[in-house]
Design a protein that fits this description.
- The chain has helices at 12-25, 49-67, 104-107, 125-135; strands at 7-9, 33-37, 45-47, 74-84, 87-97, 139-145, 148-156.
- The protein is α+β, with helices and mostly antiparallel strands.
- It has one domain (7-156): 2-Layer Sandwich (Heat Shock Protein 90), CATH 3.30.565.10.
- The strands form 2 sheets. The chain has a 5-stranded mixed β-sheet, with helices on one face. A two-stranded antiparallel sheet has the order 1-3.
Length: 162
């Protein structure tokens, strides 16, 4: 992978680019309702816009595929600041789908390369997401039930971004 160029960015930009990539490359279209909540008051994060956009596109593609069998497939994409005291400590970007969830027996393996449940999948999307977020000094959290999966990407805010 190319060397990351980390600079203070508004996380909404790579999120929006991730949506565009997911729509064009992965065919996320009108069949899946995409609800977004991206407030303008988010602190800046130290990030590589291109790498983060790719990571968000992978998450959206997975969410779209996971909810495709639902009568009303829906993805909620949101971002919000995480505060510590009076200061913004991080931004959390969450992708929530209304699919059937991740099977418990593979939940522990989803970030391993080549772990896939898709006939045409290569199992590289989530490992790329994890590596990208790790390289941004952030973390990925997954919460999955039979009513859907929520993946949260926590990225530290740049100091002095309040």
């Amino acid at each position: 992978p190319p060397e990351l160029v980390l600079k203070p960015i508004d996380v909404r930009s790579p999120v929006k680019k991730g949506v565009e990539i997911a729509r064009s490359r992965y065919g996320i279209n009108g069949k899946v309702e995409l609800e977004t909540s991206l407030p303008s008051n988010l602190p800046r994060v130290l990030g590589d816009e291109t790498a983060l956009a790719e990571a968000f596109a992978h998450l959206l593609a997975n969410a779209a595929e996971a909810s495709a069998d639902r009568s009303k497939p829906r993805i909620t994409l949101s971002a919000k600041p995480v505060r510590e005291g009076r200061h913004s400590a991080a931004v959390v970007v969450t992708v929530q789908d209304n699919g059937t969830g991740i099977a418990p027996e593979i939940k522990e393996k989803i970030f391993s390369p080549f772990c896939t449940t898709k006939p045409r999948g290569m199992g590289l999307g989530l490992p790329i997401v994890k590596r990208t977020v790790f390289d941004h000094h952030g973390r990925v959290e997954v919460d999955s039930t039979s009513k859907g999966t929520q993946v949260s990407v926590l990225l530290p805010a740049t100091s002095g971004s309040d």
